[in-house]
Structures are given as C-alpha cells and as structure tokens.
Amino acid sequence: MAGQPKAVFFDIGDTLASPVLSPNRRSLAGLRVYPFVPEILQALGHQTVPLGLISNTAPDDTMQTMQAILKQVGLLRFFDVTLLLFSSVEGLDKTRGEFFQRAATRAGIPPQRCVFVGEDAQERAVARTAFFQVSFHPLHVFHVLQEMV
C-alpha cells in the first residue's frame, strides 16, 4: 500500500471549531475556529492529501449554508468541495458506517487509506468499522498518516 493516495476527513464541531447554533437550534449560525486549525490544514495541503469533512449538522443546514459558513471563517479553501459530507444533506449521520464509506467512495480512495479525525470516541469507533484509520486530534493526524506509508 505504500505510495497509494490517502484522504483525511475531519469532524467540525469540537474538532476544528466550536459550533454556534441559531436561536432555534435547527441550523448552524457560525463557527469559532480553534487557533491551531488553519496552520494544520495548510500543512496537510502541502502534503497534497485531499481534505474533506464528515459532520453531523443541524436539520436545516444545507450544503450552501455550510459552504457559506466555512468560507466566512476561512476554512472552505482547505477542503475539496466534493468531499464535504453533512448529515443534513446526506441523510446519514456518524452513527452509520455507510456515512464513512460514502466519503471514501467520493474520494475514490479505499477506506483503509482514509483517516477520520474527530474528538468523539464513539464516532471514531464507527469509522473503524468502515475500515478508516482514525485520529483523535488534528495534530495527531500527521502521526497517523506517517504510519500509513
């Protein structure tokens, strides 16, 4: 498997940023991006690893809304827009292995060559059932990628 392509998918909430919900809690109003995140995403981009998102989103969040919020906070530029998977758009959430398998299929990369980065242990366990590698923190992903050589 050495030299084969890899892809990295991040969770958003509590991994890359703190979510700010609308007053009715049915949509995302914004994000508070953690200070270290842009630098990490930039470094991964230099490694030419495709980056995507696998995120549970509020019921009323659309692809357009999510892209607008990501653009507003300066994160959209780091991600391949075809690799943005949101539960409110896909009809699946991170309790289902199919959500992760769909991400790998979109990336055109075997799931074994994909990494899911998320703070939630249960979500990482589901990603493992879909044959993803996992990382508990954005900084840790570099170690996981190195081990995948």
Can you tag this structure with a few keywords?
149 residues, alpha/beta, Rossmann fold, 5-stranded parallel β-sheet, 6 helices
Corresponding CATH architecture: 3-Layer(aba) Sandwich
**Coarse morphology:** globular
Indicate the low-confidence ranges by residue numbers: none
Stated plainly, the CATH topology is called Rossmann fold
Report the count of strand segments. Answer: 7
* Widest sheet, order of strands: 5-4-1-6-7
Give the terminus-to-terminus CA distance: 7 Å
CATH class term:
Alpha Beta
CATH superfamily: HAD superfamily/HAD-like
Would you write up a description of this structure?
The chain has 149 residues and is an alpha/beta fold. It has a single domain (7-147), classed as 3-Layer(aba) Sandwich (Rossmann fold). The chain contains six helices and seven strands, in the order E-E-E-H-E-H-E-H-H-E-H-E-H. The protein has helices spanning 37-46, 63-72, 87-90, 97-107, 121-129, 141-147; strands spanning 7-10, 17-21, 28-33, 51-55, 84-86, 114-117, 133-135. The strands form two sheets. A five-stranded parallel sheet has the order 5-4-1-6-7, sandwiched between helices. The longest helix has 11 residues, at 97-107. It is globular and about 45 Å long.
